[in-house]
Fold these 2 entries.
Entry 1:
Amino acid sequence: MNRLIARVASAALLFGLAAQAAQAADALNGKSLYLNGPVSGGASCASCHGPTPANNVNGILAAANQPSVISGAFASNKGGMGSLFNGKFSAAEIADLAAFIGNPNVTAAPAASLAPTTLTFSGANIGQASAPLSATLTNSGNAALNIGTISIGGAAAGDFALGGGSCTNGASIAAGANCTVQATFTPTAAGARAATLTITHNATGGSSTVSLNGTGNATPQATIALSASSVDFGKLLTGTPSSVASVTVTNSGQAALNFSAISVSGASAAIITRAGTCAVGTPVAAGGSCTVTVQAAPTSAGTIAASLTLSSNASNGGGSVTVGLTGTAAAPAPALSATPSAVAFGSQTIGAAAATQTVTLANTGNVVLNIGSVGVTGSAAVTLSGSTCGATLAVGANCAATVSFAPTSEGAVTAALAVASNAPALQVGITGTGTTQATAKPALSETGPIGFADTQVGSSAAEHTTTLGNSGNAALKIATLTLGGTNPGDFVVGGTCAANVSISSGATCTITTAFKPTAAGARSADLLLVTDGGAQFHLTLNGNGVAVVVTAPSLGISPQSFDFGSVVIGSTAPTRRFTLTNSGAAAVTLSGATFSGPFAAVADSTGCAAFPFTLQPGASCDLVVGYTPTSAGASSGSVTIQSGSTTWNIALSGQGTASMPNAAPSNHGGGGCSASQDVTDPTLAALLVLSLIVIGWRRRNRNGGAK
């Protein structure tokens, strides 16, 4: 008995110490997650709870330093939070959110990053000025960044000059803002020339520098430039040729460009046909151009991978430049999707008129869909009350199936909308509850999708109004009304309907939606409305952004900055996807990306192609960036993306944390063990009581043995 109690006490003590060794949560990372949403994208906490937890909108302060409250809300789908966030936050991120809610006024110092760290100018003839290159100074901190002086020094300082840019001596850069500094290169001698651009400031380190490099040319040379560094044939059907893609090759140098070889190589070279005006033995004059065309004709399913290589006498490119040729080929196959993927009616009064919701079925395959049947299985209280689906559905087309719920007895009801076709079988789960109590009966005036007129980037389309009515015999409250989906930031929601608004029996409220595109191309979002009775409604919002005509390259980046929060050194690097969108009217070729700090690009088959690559007007791709701290403390850095003399900057930050399994307990910001800052940990109290019991038992047993 003595040994058993001792073992229990030891185990309890070890448990308490292990609990206290947990790492403290990162309130700054929690702030970023709260305002920006999950790293993988989607709705933000601020969209439902307001810009600061201090306002306690929807009772958010109940989660202050309480990660379990947030996890419980996700698990129970409280206010539709499960639908928005289940599986999107890690346990550490949930702890960070709780820490920020407990400390909404968390602040940080200014942090400066100057990127790129090197500006390399194209070769220029002696005495001739090159095109300007720019670097971006970003304040990724939370306080003003004050600039001291901007200067150029070094061995060949006289070959470089400052000119243009928005950074000036004595300027103040607000938190999250940036400015640019420009330099030009006019070589005074042949060969490699180098200098250093220095900006002094009040951030850590006191100054930031950029290396300046250029080459003075004594004789004219040819320079090659491509209109595209990659060609994506897209999704193709086997046996069907792709459209012809054209790459323009331009000689931007001062001497004739001569090709020594033009070839296609790689695993898919046999299915690529090459043509065009570029040819070996046909020089391209200075300032002139020629074209190379390529076409793919896949014979089997799989990935298309090949390379177009042009070898020449150009002074750049290392003797040859390569254009990646990619795409996918698939055999004809049907596919079917449903929106929403589940239907929730909530509570409905027995004997009342049936509640209805509509499911949109879409053909997402590459051949015509043959529909065998559309019906409802499960409870007889759920029926198919309408359908626009015929025997076939064209590629990209959709149809609607309406289901009704009229309970005849109390209790939960489950059913499914089942669709049989030449695609894999599809079932949409349906839930509801029958009750004899008075209940609300919410219904939207339309089922969507809501399509907006084509709208110029930065402008707004006409508002669209949707009505939420309550034909039941009890009031309802709106628990959640928020935007999610792919591009929630391109749409605006207003009207009299809002979270926590009550709608009495027979009353209505309105939801106004507007389209304000931030980038060109197709944009979409999902409007989610959840009532306190459990009913959920989805409205799909669609629009097309029209690019503003500009002459300079235009690239939209979302988000433009990101804080990775606290990351343990040596752990798996967290990643963030940054969407690059060509919002201009002409194709933009991104020549490269320069990283500073412990940040780097992460290879991802669903992300952007390898640099250099070209984005067509309205096109977008995701640049995937990882954070791998090598030392403890704050990290700052950036990604600078180049296109000729134009650059764009993404400010990055994070906090490296050393792994300390035996560290003292800490609960700053609400994370870590259960010990609070006033040291009232119930676990410690329990351990103390248990220890006293064991000591007393041992003394009593010892005294008894001495008699």
Note: The first strand starts at residue 112 and ends at 115.
Entry 2:
Amino acid sequence: MLMPQAAQTGATEPATGSTPPAFTLRDFLIAAFYHIRIVLLAGLIPLVVALAVAATSRTEYTASSLLMVIVSREVSNAQNVTDTGPAVLSIEGLKQVESEVQIIESADVARATVVEIGVDRLFPPGRLAAITRLFSSDKDLMDKAVERFQASLRASVQSGSNVIKVSFTNPDRDVAIAAADALVKNYLAARRRLFENPTAKILMLEVNRFQSDLTAVDREIEQLKVKAGIIDFAQDAILASNQVDSILQRRRQVAEREVAVAAQVTEAEKQFAALPDSVFDFAEKTDALPGDEDNNTLSKLLLERDRVASQYAPGSQLLRDLDRQIATIRARIKTRSERRYSTDRAVRNPQVNYIQNMILSLKVEQDSLGRQKGELVQQQRLAEERLAALRAAETPLIELNRKRDSLGEGFREYQRRAVAASIEEAAAQSRQSAVRVVQEAGSAVTKRSLALPLVAAGLFAAILFGGAAGALASSLRTSFVTPAEAERALGLPVLAVFDAEAERPGNAGTDEAIGSCATLLLDTRIDDAPLRVLHFLAPDADDALPWLARRLAEEFAARRQLRTLLIDLSSAAPYPLAAGGGDVRGGIAVTGTPVPLLWAAADAERSPLLDFRLPIAEAELMMAELRSAFDCVVISSDLPGASLVTQRFCQLVDANILAVQAEKSRKPAVLRLRDQVAESGGLTIGLVFLGRRYYLPNWLYRRA
């Protein structure tokens, strides 16, 4: 049966960028049923263990006592104990209560309680006790009893209060009550012993020593700053470093300017020596007098006469006046040619004065630069001496500050502890009143049976273990079971899904499925161009791929009346060919088949397009010839069969389609095939899923 993706008529491109389907409940159920044996085996183990433990579990009694810890000014580690502020600080109070819990759970208190109650009463010997005692000493038995006692003991602080709940669990009710009461009594006795060690005098000696050391270090720091002239070391160091850098930059600028000025002086003197004292700007001879406008007047009169002649008759008075004026002007011009005027003009060279002034200013600047350079050297020496002094004082100042910080921390810590210890010694007599028993153990005894919780836990663990085993098996599985898995792993849409019985002859669903797949491929367009050359390829050799290619080719030829060429590179058995000779079309030796309008590649040796030595340019020309000769070309190949030819077809065809065989195609191989298609420059529009099996019941498929 085929389940094609919904095709949209007029689509412009394949849905290669569609979002892969999310993991659904159906996928989970399919994976569980596929690995049903592993899931059942993994779930059965914790269930059997839980049932066995539930059958051997015993009823236990828990006796609980309540202790209230009073945290007040008398507590030595409370801050501001001599102030008039709050009597209890929340953080210090919590620390005090937690310390009491740790004392209750200590091994000394547990050992004293076990000795008081008795090992055999607390933990009655079992059937094999006589044998185990032969291989262990009394000390080992006591250590194990203390460890078991601590495992049965629970001491916890009640939420939001300073009350401690102490519980002890035992199968015997009376033993549980006696052990809880004995534990509280031994805890109070151990608590009294803990606070009998006075330490205030020792701590005060340390405080005095730290104070004297701090005073000495402060004096050394002050002397060092006065000697080096330091106010703020960080700021002084930055100022000194910036001053040295600024002076160095100014020295470089002065040196550069000095070299430039020297070069300018040399060049100016050289050019000055080559200049003449005077230069002749021009010499001219002319007979023109200032204010002589005869030529201009003659031109104007001639233009005026032409204008008047076009408007008046010949011999008119106005024309005669203009002719008389023109004759007069011409006579003056003729007499002026007899007069000769000549003017000679000499101009002194202006560059001489300019270069002399420039040489003078450059020499003055050169002298000032020399004086400035000497002053900058002196300033740099002073700045470097200041920087060297700061560097010499840096290391001892850092060491002194580090020493002072360390001594300050120690001084503050010892001073705080000394004050707390003195208060602790003053309040040592009232220590017992800081912890009070609120509830006796016999007042609150609870009974608990773990049979039902163990069974429930076993069922829950069975579900978890089974799910984990199924998930682990699914993650380790290298094949695809459902089309959604292939779509999520490859990031490609599923174009068609064929079940395991699709190749059976006479399957009506297969014919409909092949038709739907052909329609989907024919309706798909890339850059407004239909798909004419299709390449089906698989990572491994499989009979399902040649079958799919042949059925699609027959669909295109017989049902769609398209001239179709089938190139089968993945099957050893060729397609049934018609009797008669063949021809070479587009570099492929083709032969007719019993199906009308269907041709098949017959002889690979006579097909130049199937030669891996063929240049890509010639291959593109042959592929163009195939497109003109056939309406549709279906190519099927696999990597083991023709790897180089397959890679070439990936680049030349219109679209590549991956064939994934259910439960056979390995994920790494399919992923590598997809990447090879992309690396060769081919376009992959999707995948077809072959050989799918259905593991869920039909009613569950309808509901999941």
Note: Residues 351-426 form the longest helix (76 residues).
